[in-house]
Amino acid sequence: MRSMQENPLLTDEVIASKIIIVRDCKVMLDADLAELYGVETKRLKEQVRRNLERFPPSFMFELTKDEAAALRSQKASLNRGEHSKYLPFVFTEHGILMLSNVLKSQRAIQVSIRIIDIFVKLRQLLVNNAELWLEIERIKSKLDSQDKNMEIVFQYFDQLLSLKNESVRRRIGYKPDEL
Within 13 Å, how many C-alpha atoms sit on residue 170's CB side? Predict the structure, then answer.
């Protein structure tokens, strides 16, 4: 039996590519999860329907027709006609964890752990990017204030130059009589 690490379906890149954003939530489609868990989408949905009390809306929700149509145009896993009878379910990070309890297979547990690890890595990337953006904003605000200060210095230079041009300086010292 191949280990989960050797399975080409379970690379970080493959799992991360199956995470999408719907309704401002990072989620995974039922068909993608079924593929990773090694079960039919139909069977996965059956188990979820039998255990609906374990899946509040913050864990899992069904896509609307418009959402499904928009995803169908973006993702190859939602081929036209393949899911026309039922709208797809999408699962949040917590819903994916709950799926491993519902499916109860060793593979489901291992796959769920891998997926949760990817969600954690993505969250960490977002935190790191947020810190980077904050630092960039701090630098930009410093540069803006420096630009304003430089502008003031140049205004003073302009004023000094205009004063110099306006006043005619009289020579100081001995002046011979002019003829």
Answer: 4
* Both tokens assigned to 157: 């230079």
Give the lowest-confidence range in 16-25, 103-112, 166-175: 166-175
Q: Judge residue 61's burial from the number of C-beta atoms within 10 Å of its C-beta, 0-12 exposed, 13-18 middle, 19 or more buried.
A: buried
Asked if 40 and 34 count as a contact pair (C-beta separation under 8 A), the reply is yes
Cβ neighbours of 54 (radius 10 Å)? 15
Whether the pLDDT of residue 122 is over 60: the answer is yes
DSSP state of 6: T
Q: Which of 21, 26, 31, 17 is nearest to 86 (CA)?
A: 31
Cα-based distances in Å from 158 to 141, 145, 151? 26, 20, 11
pLDDT tens-place string over residues 31-87: 888 888 888 888 888 888 888 888 888 888 988 888 888 877 776 555 544 545 778
Is 71 in contact with 44 (CB distance < 8 Å)? no
Angle between helices 30-37 and 93-103 (to 10 degrees): 50
Q: What is the mean pLDDT of the chain?
A: 77
Token couple for 50: 């039998």
